Amino acid sequence: MEVSRSSCQVDRFQRTGDRVGMWTSFLCAVHCALLPLALAVLPTLGLSVVGRVDIDQAFVVFATVLAIASLAVGYRRHRAFLAWLLLAPGLLLVWANAFSPLHDHSLWHAVMMAAGGLLIAVAHLVNYRLSHLTAPDRTA
Questions:
Q1: In this predicted model, what pLDDT tens digit does every residue of 104-115 receive, in sequence order?
Q2: Rounded to an integer, what distance in angstroms lies between the CA atom of residue 34 and that of residue 46?
């Protein structure tokens, strides 16, 4: 069986997209979980948070584009909807908490953003595993 060059490029994009998506979503969840603690501890150490730049919204847009592109490519291969069932609530949580009045950097916001980030990371992991299970044999 001969595999086309464009097929290999799509596979590489999908694998890379899922890996980047898993790690960035996981780091987002860690960031959201630890930021309130850091904001509480820094003033006691004599450090102030000057000009706090909020990157939540930019990251949510990036994570959404990456996740939809990566899962769409994976779905074309494995035809399993499980990753999308994990991605949808994850995106709903992060979008609702980044672009609504809930975006107030409270503990509730941090918990919901961390939960959404973890769901997105798990969706990428599931998509990666499903794609790996259904990958055509490239040794022939």
A1: 778 888 889 889
A2: 19
